[in-house]
Structures are given as structure tokens and as C-alpha cells.
Amino acid sequence: AIIERHGTRAVLNMDSVIKAVIQSKHFRLKVVSYDHGCGIPETAYLMRDVNILISTHGNALGGSLWMPSPLASFRDGPQKDYPLPVVISIDSTKYFESWFQWTTTSMSQRFILHRCGPTVSYHPDPREFNESV
Fold it and tell me: Which pLDDT value is given to residue 130?
């Protein structure tokens, strides 16, 4: 599933991302927008069969809570033939936070952080300010 965001978290080339996923022919694709409201029951329903979630960093990644898990049934043990869920967070070079890395990996989901945007870092190397180095 791709959760499409608008406004300040819009991915400028989202059409290209969607086309690339469709052209791979390995996945059935859901494109979802939470921008007009989506409650917890609706989110749980939408994520019930999602194995790969792609979204910009933010609350939309919280939908990963309802993705299928190879550890869903502790009584029966791990489901060895079930694919490992993947969460891909598209982050800006202007902002980085690994909060969802901890929640997803604790649920046995693979977390991939993709940083994009201008190459100018807002955290410059301190050596740039010290002329003696």
C-alpha cells in the first residue's frame, strides 16, 4: 500500500513511485489517503492484507500496527512461509527521526528509511566552523 500525503508531506514524484510498483507486476497495489480522515477501524481494515507499506514519515506509518505479522499467532508459533512485512519511510533531508524504526522492528517488520530532497544538510559538520582543522 502507498499512503499518499498532500501538503507539506507530499512526495513530488508519487506518480512515478506508483507506476514503478505497478510495472513490477509482483504486487497488488492500494493507494490510500488519510488526508480527509480515516479512523482506527478503517485503518485496520485497509492494512489487514498489506505486506509492504510506503509513506512519508508521520502518523500514516502507524498503520503498520495492523499489517499481517509472521508472529501473529503465538499459540501456533511463527508462520515460516509468511513474508516479512516491510515498512518504507520516505523522509526529507530536512528532518529525520527513527521513531517508527523501533515500533516496526519490535513487531518483526523490516523498516527501510529512504531519505530524499536537497543535498544541503541542516546539520553541518562542526569542522566547517573551526578554521584550524
Answer: 45
